[in-house]
Input
Amino acid sequence: MQGEIDILEKDLVLLSRAVRYPATPNLATVVPERLRARGLAPSKLRVAAVVVAALAALGAGVAVVAPAREAVADLFDKINIFEIDQVPPGLTHEVEGREVSLEVARDALKFETASPNGAQPSKVLLQEFGEVKAVALFFDPSNGPGYVLFETNGRVGKGVPTGGQEAEFVEGLGEAYWLTGLRLVQYQNLYGDVIYESRRITDQNTLIWSRDGFVFRIEGPLEKEARDAS
Amino acid sequence: MVPREVGTTGARWVYNSRRRDQLDDETLIREAHRGDAGAFEELARRYQEAAFRAAYLVLRDADEAKDAAQDAIVKAYQALGRFRPGAGQSFRPWLLKIVMNESLNRAKSKKRRAAAVERAARPQSLEWSLDETVVDRERARLLREALEALREQERVLIYLRYFLSLSERELADYMGCAPGTVKSRLHRALAKLREVVRDGFPELLAEGA
Output
């Protein structure tokens, strides 16, 4: 019996080698399209009148423009908004970094950090990911909610849940996006690779924009009423 | 793509893809869990050939195999939360199980449709294209017919082991059993094939054939 099984095994091996499979189609790129076709299409950007008080305080007028683009943000090759099916669990909300003085942060970043109306931050965290450096400036104004202003020389990625929210496209210092809801934040290096240790999640309302090769973003419980009032 | 990365320049995307090539499956799966746009795409790219070939072995039609493999990969993405690389699961057998299930379901539907229009209910003729410099055409035809006479789970096991070259460890993952059990099931499948051959295709066992 074993001898016959050996013959069959040998034939099976030969048959397997003889099968001429058709060329493998490119499934890896087609499948994401099918996922979208199944109702996971990205939310559309819409026109929105967004004026952020803190941005205005930085001297930027923000004007509404028609979003003649899809749910894509690739601002000056610095800000990359992409879609994710699920906001990753297990990441921290915390902004982590080394607490330093504003002067130390400015030296490390090698560019002049901006502060709304020249206000002094209550805390400064320096984040260093190799060549990519960022500073988180915490502000606690007496007449409004606290917020954090991030400034970096790196690229910033924002993962927004598919269909879960809308990104509002605004124009001020070039272009800017207003984001709400839970989402992923990550820095990318100069080549566009994700810096995984930089990843965190946030549910704070955010305005993100790019100017002079740097990326700025404000996170905080900023309300539409406050923005409109500015 | 969902996970979908948009807003990247083509050049940057190519760069990212190249870097992901260097990551192992476990890392890619972890990143896909976390929503990394390209990680699952890289996994799909890595195993699309195995997925397509598995579907083709069952369906024997390139277009149907493509559809089945695509649907299976979409299902795998949606089920990724249930995949447990930390528990020793391997991605390839996990994906191939989804592909096989999808392909077998499609094959059954096809057979039902054929019966509904009162076509012969006999198994379809095999349409694998063969390199006849590697195997004798008549022996190949007989062996394929013998394989068709096996039960579905026996035939699939043979496809996985001999045609898709899954290791015993991967087969254990696929079947959800111990590696030792794989040996005995494989042996039973071959013994069953021997029975079928002895009854219907004895020339396959002839000496010097």
About this structure: The longest helix of chain A spans residues 2-18.
